[in-house]
């Protein structure tokens, strides 16, 4: 196939030597002009934005205007690595980070995903790759890090699905079969072309299975931007990975941190999270037990049928004793797969395929939240979301919303083109995935996502807009990830105040708040919503996975620490400070770590403001995520709700009708949320409208003239 490629641009370079985790170079690619060039990373940018997501946000800010739309040529798609990306001594160090203007939200969206692309990009000489402009036809951006060569070449014959395309590319760009492990690709699929829910897959070669494996940059539609630019693939080839390739300042602290973390995982994981056996799906029955598993569009938090999709079911299906790390040296090894599942539908009907995972989000989203408790449906639906390049979480939450609309008579078979979308309609749900992926039928409508569907259903089918807003689980235009947050005020705020939209990777507080009762006061919740988003932001600056931090735990952690301090896992924080010192030679304490994160976090909030969002009204949770929208929901937890009304809200419910009690509960819960907003904004150094104050950005060191002017205009307007 490569013989059919036409080379549009060629760039030769001398790969920059990595020094203390950095190359201090970025590769700029313009697909409109076919320009490829190296650009230096300014020392100021390195000092203030650290790496990874910070670099992506800064250079995206430079590239776009306040009026830039996601599909404008000047929008950039930026792939970024951090100073710890690619180390092999500590688990979870292979993370790629992407930044772009989101098709769903209109503001910057950042994502992180595993695979080998970020390490190979860095080893090839670049801390970031910026892609701007639009190609006239499908192209492949290829970087050979050993030869110091980058090209833009047409791709007229390659497959257009995310199952076959990575296989073809690993063979096409490898120097023989034994070299396929030295290739990593970023690809998407036809579902990204036909929807706003497109994801980007990042690959690595699974030598045991003799197959490519995929991890995802998924939320907010980065794959839609990828395909709008007519990128067929980004391919990086690099051979020669070594444990010292990042040239750390001092290897000993890195070895110390890695040794104790790897020992902890290898000796304790089988009794703790079972990440090496099941991965993140280990929590399904735990979440069901504590009323947090989303069921039927987040109406409920548990279901008797969860036994059919609990973790032990997945343990039996997942291939055990396989090398399931998505980067070298990751002893957590949570990237599981179900081998040789025979598909029942779609273009690969009857074929046996490897199905990724599943992750917890897969089970909670495509399973219980759509009313399905068939593990084989969950597996097949997950496969086809990957096959077509569709964000699984975004689609699952959209599907659950459409199913509730169907059961309420807002849509019907005439509107859906014959699809029965009752909860649990598995075969029709699969057909909807195929329609979305192939760009026809009601699938094109579903691909708009919940935010735009609410408007469409209200305007075209005269549905009750208030009801749609209450049950439509999206914030800022992005679908909510798969945790039922009704009884966790901290998780509600964690979702609603997240910078990019309601993805739990920023603030996952539901266990601390709802299950363990570690955040009893507004101040406790506000403190958690200050610390944990910042600490998690740091992973995105470094190129690290968060799972080794909080999905593993030292044996004595709960003996030494209690409450929020135990949840921080101090020994793991010490590990990260050791890693940073060992790599960069700079001694960092926890306050210094949080300061690095806060600078980037506040910058992203101001970036949202620049794009016309980023204020208090954007931080609101749909009421389905706060409390019961329907009588059915209220009655399912009647005792709990009435206890809160009488004991916490001090409401005399004697003689009140069901509707009156529901209204009183809503008033109380929304009031509680507003009070938490106030407490969080104060703690973060933001004004009452949720905008970082001038004093805050000065303390951060990002009081650039444009930011000062932007904050001043907002303050004057307010």
TrEMBL record:
Q: Which UniProt keywords apply?
A: 4Fe-4S, Iron, Iron-sulfur, Metal-binding, Oxidoreductase
Question: Gene3D superfamilies under this entry?
Answer: Aldehyde Ferredoxin Oxidoreductase Protein, subunit A, domain 2 (1.10.569.10), Aldehyde Ferredoxin Oxidoreductase Protein, subunit A, domain 3 (1.10.599.10), Aldehyde ferredoxin oxidoreductase, N-terminal domain (3.60.9.10)
Domain Aldehyde ferredoxin oxidoreductase N-terminal, by residue range, is 22-242
Tell me if 4Fe-4S is a UniProt keyword of this record.
yes
- Source organism, top-level taxon: Bacteria
Q: Which GO terms describe its molecular function?
A: 4 iron, 4 sulfur cluster binding; electron transfer activity; metal ion binding; oxidoreductase activity, acting on the aldehyde or oxo group of donors, iron-sulfur protein as acceptor
Report the coiled-coil segments.
Answer: none
Q: Which cofactor does it need?
A: tungstopterin; [4Fe-4S] cluster
Q: Which family does it belong to?
A: Belongs to the AOR/FOR family.
Q: Can you say what this protein is called?
A: Aldehyde:ferredoxin oxidoreductase
The record lists the organism as Candidatus Cryosericum terrychapinii
